[in-house]
Amino acid sequence: MAAKRQFTRRDFLQTTSAATAAGVFLGTSAVSRGQDSPNERPVFATIGLRNQGWTITSKSTKFADFAAFADVDANVLGATNEKLKERTGKKADEYSDYRKLLERDDIDAVMIAAPDHWHTKISVEAMLAGKDVYCEKPLTLTIDEGKLIEKIVKQTGRVFQVGTMQRTENDHRFLKAIALIRDGRIGDIQKVTCGINGATGSPKIPAIDVPEGLDWDMWLGPAPKVPYRALPEMRVGYGGGVPLYTNCHYAWRNWYEYSGGQMNDWGAHHVDIATWALGAGDSGPNKITPVSYSLPVEYKDGYPTVSDQYNSPTKFEIHANMPGDIPMVITSEGDNGILFEGTKGRFFVNRGKLTGKPVEDLESNPLPEGAVEDVYGGPVSENHTANFIEGMRSRKQPISDVWSHNRMLETCHLANIAIRLGRELNWDPAKREIIGDDEANAFLSRENRKGYEINV
């Protein structure tokens, strides 16, 4: 097995070097051939396996071999490895500590699906260890973390794909939406509304014993040391099989300590597409106004006053002033998706539909040939992993790069800061700092817990 992995890596790196020397960006067909020839397949590892971790892994087995898994929950680690064996016929090596995985020189890239508060530390350490990185969205917990990742990508030359899969998948309807705008089908954009769903609060959640097999201290990692909390009621559907109310497992998304609530969860998808459509991927907003919002617990000076309940917003309407003074509304109300309104019409897009008169008009007046490919920057990849591997081979950044992602995510981070402090924020997109508000600027970074610092 070791000899085979070394051969696979050597062959992959030779392919990469040849593509780089020629300055060629390999298309999807070149990547797809790799599924038939093991000698052309890169070697991957996944860190963080529950839910989305397995989703991105299972989509990637067509293109890559998985040599290692890491997770702080022994139960998830073992169960996911069994799924891999069922899918590919072989298991990956198992690690409870991802750092041991990064020490291996036979791994070309890592896929990261740990909770958000771990993304930056693992990503930085992976790049410094010579690995290319695919990391789930939202990429960061703070704006300054995004700046650090950008610095390390530039320093190391690693290829980095953010897991905003709407840029590639979902039948390319989001690409078609942007193509409609670029072709002038709604005229000049006047307003964009991103519906990203509301959330619910929680009852008081008691501190209880840590479940067997879970390394709670390691799960917390950079976050403050707190007790494990959960109620007996179990979650059903996606993210099921774990407590419905907890500060771990699937529900960590509802805590500012580990995430950014719906603003960073669904916002990282729809605000991304809206920002791309506006051509604001290298600038972002200059003002964030919290028109209305509801928090499930009391706050003081931007921090929750209790520690046993969910604390991220449940309802909100945020106005972001985008370049050209175009308003972007981010709301918990209405249909999940994006409404584009222009001087000549409007249309709506989400993962299930693309509707509106400009869309209906395509039947008699189709988009120019290659319009969708022009948005994408070339032939559209088979899926997000295929695009990542194309980037690995060409040494060019993929469709969801860290710079445009961070600029988009700054809107979401600023919206959360505005809600926490209850006031409008003026943002300097050139300096990437809040204007005239030292208290708000303090939320641009967060100190990691001792022992979990990021060493660069």
TrEMBL record:
Membrane-spanning segments: none
EC nos: 3.2.1.49
Keywords: Glycosidase, Hydrolase
Keyword field contains Hydrolase: yes
Record-linked Pfam families: GFO_IDH_MocA, GFO_IDH_MocA_C2
Residues annotated as domain Gfo/Idh/MocA-like oxidoreductase N-terminal: 82-163
Domain Gfo/Idh/MocA-like oxidoreductase bacterial type C-terminal: 201-453
GO molecular function: alpha-N-acetylgalactosaminidase activity; nucleotide binding
The keyword Hydrolase is annotated on this UniProt entry: yes
NCBIfam families: TAT_signal_seq
Protein name, entry field: Alpha-N-acetylgalactosaminidase
Name of the coding gene: nagA_2
